[in-house]
């Protein structure tokens, strides 16, 4: 494991997970995803076997990256990413339909952090580190998707703040009309169903050649 960003002592350490350390961390990452995505807007009633399978596939994708946040040896947050080509079919179709070149587009999986540790800049660091990774590998843009829920959803907490403002500040915009769709069972439902997932995208700035 390589610590990639020094942090104040009360902040989680950010670590780029790879190889055996990554394999060993997968069950903890799976548990963390289940815990965090149980809350609105995901409301995901997670399944550890499914999660382990999903993560095992993700980490074998081309150019995969996993950043983990550790506190006292425990994984308290993580963010993932990989190439799109050859991997994320549900995601690549709406991107292709919108005219986006897939081989030069890097996909961000999730970023999840335990609620008690939010608001300290870890979410920004997750973006910084994955964007730097993608740029180093010569990708031209990065993207991710976020579940779309009705604003009057009965399980939406009164104090809920959408992350849209954060993502816009990071330079991301909704790709108009581009939705993936993923299926899972909500915590208050007996059956799984498909949810629309809005695609957000950001192109890296083009460097101007001096004339
Ligand atoms: C996404 C997530 C990892 C961000 O983590 P974080 O460490 O709190 O993020 P940061 O501290 O870097 O803050 C990012 C911005 O979000 C804002 N923010 C903080 N808490 C927030 C909240 N509860 N709701 C909405 N925005 C919030 C911050 O003000 C900050 O904006 P600023 O730069 O203008 O100050 C975390 O919110 C999370 O795990 N959310 C649940 C899972 C999820 O929805 N993930 C995204 C889709 S996969």
How would you characterize this protein structure?
The protein is an alpha+beta fold and 211 residues long. The protein has a single domain (2-203), classed as Aminopeptidase (3-Layer(aba) Sandwich), CATH 3.40.630. The protein contains 5 helices and 8 strands; from the N terminus they run ββααββαβαβαββ. α1 (19-37) packs across α2. The chain is globular and about 60 Å long. Residues 36, 110-113, 118-124, 146, 161, 163, 166, 169 line the site of coenzyme A (COA).
Distance between the termini: 44 Å
- What is the tally of beta strands? 8
Cofactors, ions and other ligands in the entry = coenzyme A
Structural class: alpha+beta
- Can you tell me the CATH architecture? 3-Layer(aba) Sandwich
Q: What's the CATH topology label? A: Aminopeptidase
Shape: globular
- What's the CATH C level? Alpha Beta
**Beta strand %:** 25-35%
Helix content: 25-40%
Task: Report on the biggest sheet.
Answer: 8 strands, mixed
CATH-level-4 superfamily name: Gcn5-related N-acetyltransferase (GNAT)
């Amino acid at each position: 494991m390589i610590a990639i960003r020094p942090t104040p002592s009360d902040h989680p350490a950010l670590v780029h997970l790879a190889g055996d350390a990554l394999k060993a961390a997968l069950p903890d990452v799976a548990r963390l995803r289940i815990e965090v995505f149980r809350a609105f807007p995901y409301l995901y009633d997670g399944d550890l076997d499914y999660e382990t399978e999903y993560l095992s596939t993700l980490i074998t994708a081309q150019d995969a990256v996993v950043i983990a946040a550790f506190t006292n040896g425990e994984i308290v947050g993580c963010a993932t990413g990989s190439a799109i080509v050859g991997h994320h079919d549900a995601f690549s179709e709406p991107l292709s339909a919108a005219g986006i070149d897939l081989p030069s587009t890097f996909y961000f999986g999730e970023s999840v952090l335990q609620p008690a540790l939010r608001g300290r800049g870890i979410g920004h660091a997750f973006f910084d580190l994955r964007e730097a990774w993608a740029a180093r590998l010569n990708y031209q843009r990065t993207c991710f998707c976020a579940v779309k829920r009705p604003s009057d959803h009965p399980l939406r907490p009164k104090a809920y703040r959408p992350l849209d403002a954060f993502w816009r500040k990071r330079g991301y915009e909704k790709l108009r009309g581009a939705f993936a769709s993923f299926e899972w069972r909500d915590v208050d439902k007996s059956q799984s169903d498909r949810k629309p997932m809005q695609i957000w995208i950001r192109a890296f700035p083009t460097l101007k050649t001096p004339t």
